[in-house]
Amino acid sequence: MESCEAAGAQVGEIPDNDISQVANEEPRRLSREQIFVMISTASLNFSSMVCYSILGPFFPREAERKGVSSTIIGLIFGCFALFNFLTSLIMGKYLVQIGAKFMFVTGMFVSGCVTILFGFLDKAPDGPVFIGLCFLVRAMDAIGFSAAGTASFSILINTFPQNVATAMGILEIFTGLGLVMGPPIGGFLYQSFGYEVPFIALGSTTLLMVPLNMYILPNYDSVPKKDSFLKLIVLPKVLILCLAIFGLSAGLAFLDPTMSLFVLEKFKLPAGYVGLVFLGLALSYSVASPLLGFLSDKIPWLRKWLLIFGGLLTALCYFFLGPAPILHIESQLWLFILMLILIGFALAMIGMPLFPEMLSCAYENGFEEGLSLLGLVSGLFGALWALGSFVGPTLGGFLNEKVGFEWSAAIQGGFSLLSGLASAIFYIYEAIQRKRSHPGNLLGSKEERTLLLN
């Protein structure tokens, strides 16, 4: 972690995107600790995404049988993101006091238990009792997930200080696999064995990973710092990065309640083929993330361009996804799938540079290196992601009902357009300020050399 301290101490001597000046000194082989951390975080990403996504194929139908309206079903899905948003900030703030390993393992344990409990909700009485239990279990699942996720990000950054984006890009493969495999696994188990078995099977698998992580995950001790979320979020660059996180999350979550209905109505595809359409986005995101993460670590100045063009490309793809009626282009399946593939790639362009850029900004503005700062950054990332996951489907569902999918997709792309333009303006302003100060620094150094030579 010495390289991060150097980045914070030498703000005037290095580019602001460069977290590490000794990245080439990183040993090519992963240490035993790094391998164990990768296994732990990968198991969390995969299991949590599978447990999160298995509800889609069959829970709405089961809830309707219990007398739950479509609006309440949407709120049951949305309350996960809402509680995740509220608890991520708290978990990030008190990560050091609670302990990263304890928070990780406990969050995973809670998530596994409540996933199993969700499988027994069909035994609850219809109506308000069933609805109340659904909200309670989903809220508990969100708390467990936010605890494990916040600790996971902090541990990962602490273990890979010089290759943060590369490590995150590799782990996004498991996130994508979890999202892709969750619905078919849940649907198959539900069709074959009934409502309870999908939750019991996946929850039990998550619980089996708890003792494994207790054994292989190292302990991380740190001293609490006085840094706060307020001090971090008021930094202009961090605000822009927060907008990028929100736009990324909202864009992904917007598609959950709207895309399948549009595909079924517009292209008259059988229901079994709708899941294949989703693969275009998930696979392109999973494949592009490791590559873009590697480039982000090896070429730090590339991060600003990834954020700018990623935001603009995402907005453009959402505009053509419908496409927007103003274009007067007929909707075609090949164009729709192509836009989904490009959206997955563009979202990876935005997601991979976010963490290293935010850490770089924090170090340059006097934040002390350590697990305490990593907890703040991880908590802030998790909170903004959860907020986007709540706003995306909520606003998307409302707009889809009022103006149709074509316009709602174009409006949704506005978040990414705004983040891309804001990033461009900020980095242009930053470059101008650096050029203005640079000649003075050069002149001073020449004068000092002349005096020393004399």
UniProtKB/TrEMBL annotation:
Gene3D superfamilies: MFS general substrate transporter like domains. It comes from the Eukaryota. GO terms for cellular component: membrane. It is found in: Membrane. Pfam families: MFS_1. It is a multi-pass membrane protein. Keywords: Membrane, Transmembrane, Transmembrane helix, Transport. Residues 37-437 form the Major facilitator superfamily (MFS) profile domain. PROSITE patterns: MFS. The chain crosses the membrane at residues 35-55, 67-90, 102-121, 127-157, 164-185, 197-217, 229-253, 273-294, 306-327, 333-355, 367-387, 407-429. Coiled coil: none annotated. Its main location: membrane. GO terms for molecular function: transmembrane transporter activity. This is MFS-type transporter SLC18B1. It comes from Python bivittatus (Burmese python). The lineage of its organism: Eukaryota, Metazoa, Chordata, Craniata, Vertebrata. The gene is SLC18B1.
